[in-house]
Amino acid sequence: MTVSTPAPAPATVDLGDPHTFADHDLDGFWRTLRDTAPVYWNPPVGGRRGFWVVSRYDDIMATYRDNVNFTSERGNVLVTLLGGGDAGAGRMLAVTDGHRHHALRKILQRVLSPRVLNEVAQTVRVNTRQLIREAVESGGCDFAERIASRIPMTTISNLLGVPEQDRDFLLSLTKTALSADDEDVDEVDSEMARNEILMYFMDLVEERRESPGDDVISMLIGSAIDGVPLSDEDVVLNCYSLIIGGDETSRLTMIDCVHTLADRPGQWRRLKRGEVDVETAVDEVLRWASPTMHFGRSVVHESEMHGVRLRPGEIVTLWHASGNRDERVFARPGEFDLGRTPNKHLAFGYGPHFCVGSYLAKVEISELLLALRDFTTGFEQTDEALRIRSNFLTGFSTLPVRFRPDHRGLQEADR
Ligand code: HEM
């Protein structure tokens, strides 16, 4: 049967509204959608367009894989899809399709591959261990501010060759660009922050053109597609993409990791005693955090999913927040299990746009787990953690934590 009218579902939940995610526990909502309306219509609200909501793992994978019927070039997150498109379309990796996407991705993969990132991984290790050691020795800290804010931003800034003195400024912008940790920050502030990041990189690209260095910006300036060098705009947009993609997602995952472990001493003990493989644990941390709640596509050719007709131009959103908890794929999906295998989670997406920074993100999370394991015997959350507000990202902007030092581990590392 073909159903062209929207499927019924809890009408009180508006997935376009950032407050929805701060104010509700949506586990039950997602389960209802997966069971009864796997392709659900989030209706228009206050002049904003409606959009399709895909909640089952297999359907999300199938849509990610299908770049014939679906495109990223009209935006890949609700804010741009609903706002009428993405200014970086056809030039910024995440919102480019086809041949140009393939060529651009090859260029970025060169600098983000495990082989090339070997040295970067060493630096992540040294930084992470130093930050965790300092926090453990001082008894505690706001983990979000003192540790998680430092590691991904330092790493991606090192790669891009962002001068040390500019990093705090950039961090303040990336914290506002896609989410808000303050009631006073609205979409206008976020848009200004995104523009400021672009302007910042315009200046830096101009500088690097004059005096190239050994960094990703200089490499991008020297790159060409089909014999045509990348323009300054192309380079700027892709730097933006790397800093936005590389900072907040990893930062939120690290914060969620410590938040979750502090709350589950049994899982922490498994890690501490070496009962779980760290690589396996990293995947569960990612599945659990699912920091990017959704990505999205626009329909190019009419297609059908679960009897629902998807028409050209319509917006289809793919919810990791639901797919990563789909009981059709994951046993006991509501349990955080550091030893979970298999664990083919969707945190990095799937198909042609699969996260190009996934290796780097995994290095960062794995070094965090190792430093925690080696330097502390345990930790507690000492005060409430503040939730960010966003319809795209989920997580906390603060996480006050007290650490108990592992004196033997700290001494061994000194040798
Ligand atoms: C793409 C998630 C870390 C850069 C993606 C996509 C997801 C994702 C789901 C697919 C988007 C789509 O299909 O429209 C994550 C998560 C991360 C993370 C959860 C950390 C926990 C990073 C890092 C970098 C990065 C560290 C950069 C160093 C990118 C870029 C793309 C992308 C450039 C676009 C790839 C393409 O379109 O071909 N990411 N990411 N990400 N990510 Fe990540």
Automatic annotation (TrEMBL):
The record's InterPro entries line, in alphabetical order, gives:
Cyt_P450, Cyt_P450_B, Cyt_P450_CS, Cyt_P450_sf
Chain segments annotated as coiled-coil in the UniProt record: none
The record's section on Pfam families has: p450
Work out whether the entry's keyword set contains Iron: yes
UniProt keywords (A-Z) are: Heme, Iron, Metal-binding, Monooxygenase, Oxidoreductase
Q: Which family does it belong to?
A: Belongs to the cytochrome P450 family.
User: What's this protein's name?
Assistant: Cytochrome P450
The record lists the organism as: Streptomyces mooreae
